[in-house]
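sry for the spam today, last one i promise. struct tokens for design, 443 residues
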């Protein structure tokens, strides 16, 4: 049995054991990375840790730390009320506002994880406050980010268009952008309907619904400036103003959030390092909130994501990913090879870098694209969409950020929801993208 096949079997076993034995999948994945790396792939510790997602670790810790501080001092509460006022109290519009914001951010040049890191904590806090499905809100944020992700001036768009130019393939920047935008918009609309978006209030709301576990106690307690106003309290009363007014710690936190956006978008600084630096500065002035926030970092989620991605890194180091790609590209039926490449791109990207997968798979498609049997524009668009739309997976950077950012949820249940939803996307979208963009010979 080849080492590549063994590594795939071990990956399946990790999923099976984590599901049936309720063991943290990240811990199992670290063990698998050690066993397969040392015994099968003959990798040393440096080779095994080459796949450790240090940047994602810092993003998860930094962003959840900063927004835990914002929740502790009531800043997210203030932002939620501001969002409600912005849309005239129409709660049903908020998921679409979040979709649009993340779409605009990525379209103008923000990397997708950075946009999600900025928007997801606010969106998920709103979802908890107004009893909106966290899956709905998380999906709207991620699909919004991917919807704008292939504009001609975006990071993804620039990378893919550069690969196409380097491989001397026909390209169409607008088609690529619109393909991603339309697919993500359609998926967002479906999720909105399926997850109860049509039942959300369309009229001005004066009081939120349940905010999740512990909400009843929180809303029945007198407002002290750090929590929500009592349920049903009319807007403008002293309790409401205390709950949603601006205090020095909230002003400082808002300035920190603005600084995070500017650091990421204007200066292209790392979102995780910027967030954890800002959180540390706030903790110096308000240590009580800082201590509480540090305890609320989602460490089980960090272990889960980092463990799985470390094992995927071992697969990349030992050539399993290239092995699967080459096996598909050798198939003599171009349309079938194109469909399988779309599925491989979706499946692997659910656990690994979308950009890296696109950079590997597009060149693999060059031999049969050169023959003219498959339209290059359609194939590139289908591969790009398939490799990015699956970022709702809890093992991808965007999905992990959504999972870590959700307050007042059963994380195991939310993780399973994201995993099932990601699985549905992996199963359906590549086939649809292939049928619409590749089979007609677009390009």
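last one done:
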């Amino acid at each position: 049995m080849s080492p590549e096949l063994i590594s795939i079997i071990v990956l399946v076993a990790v999923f099976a054991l984590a599901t049936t034995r309720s063991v943290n999948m990240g811990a199992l994945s670290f063990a698998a990375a050690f066993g397969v790396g040392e015994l099968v792939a003959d990798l040393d510790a440096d080779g095994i840790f080459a796949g450790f997602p240090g940047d994602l670790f810092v993003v998860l810790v930094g962003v959840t730390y900063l927004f835990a501080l914002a929740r502790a001092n009531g800043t997210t509460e203030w932002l939620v009320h501001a969002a409600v006022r912005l849309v005239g109290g129409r709660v049903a519009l908020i998921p679409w506002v979040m979709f649009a914001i993340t779409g605009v951010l990525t379209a103008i040049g923000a990397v997708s994880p950075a946009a999600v890191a900025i928007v997801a904590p606010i969106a998920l806090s709103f979802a908890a406050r107004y009893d909106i499905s966290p899956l709905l809100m998380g999906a709207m944020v991620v699909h919004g980010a991917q919807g704008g992700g292939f504009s001609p001036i975006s990071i993804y768009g620039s990378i893919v268009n550069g690969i196409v130019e380097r491989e001397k393939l026909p390209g169409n920047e607008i088609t690529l952008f619109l393909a991603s935008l339309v697919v993500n918009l359609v998926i967002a609309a479906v999720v909105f309907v399926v997850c109860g978006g049509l039942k959300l209030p369309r009229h001005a709301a004066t009081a939120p619904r349940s905010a999740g576990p512990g909400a009843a106690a929180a809303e029945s307690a007198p407002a002290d400036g750090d929590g929500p106003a009592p349920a049903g309290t009319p807007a403008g009363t002293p309790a409401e103003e205390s709950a949603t007014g601006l205090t020095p710690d909230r002003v400082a936190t808002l300035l920190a959030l603005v600084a995070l956006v500017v650091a990421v978008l204007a200066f292209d600084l790392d979102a995780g390092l910027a967030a954890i630096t800002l959180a540390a500065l706030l903790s110096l002035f308000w240590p009580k909130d800082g201590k509480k926030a540090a305890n609320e970092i989602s460490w089980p989620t960090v272990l889960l994501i980092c463990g799985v991605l470390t094992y995927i890194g071992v697969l990349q180091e030992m050539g399993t990913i290239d092995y699967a790609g080459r096996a598909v590209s050798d198939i003599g039926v171009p349309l079938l090879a194109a469909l399988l490449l779309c599925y491989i791109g979706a499946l692997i990207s659910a656990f690994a870098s979308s950009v890296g997968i696109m950079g590997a798979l597009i060149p693999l498609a060059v031999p049969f694209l050169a023959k003219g049997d498959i339209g290059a524009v359609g194939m590139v668009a289908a591969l790009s969409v398939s490799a990015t739309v699956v970022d709702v997976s809890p093992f991808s950077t965007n999905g992990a950020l959504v999972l870590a950012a959700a307050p007042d949820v059963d994380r195991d249940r939310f993780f399973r929801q994201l995993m099932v939803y990601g699985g549905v996307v992996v199963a359906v979208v590549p086939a649809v993208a292939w049928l619409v963009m590749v089979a007609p010979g677009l390009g």
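The radius of gyration is 22 Å. ok im logging off now
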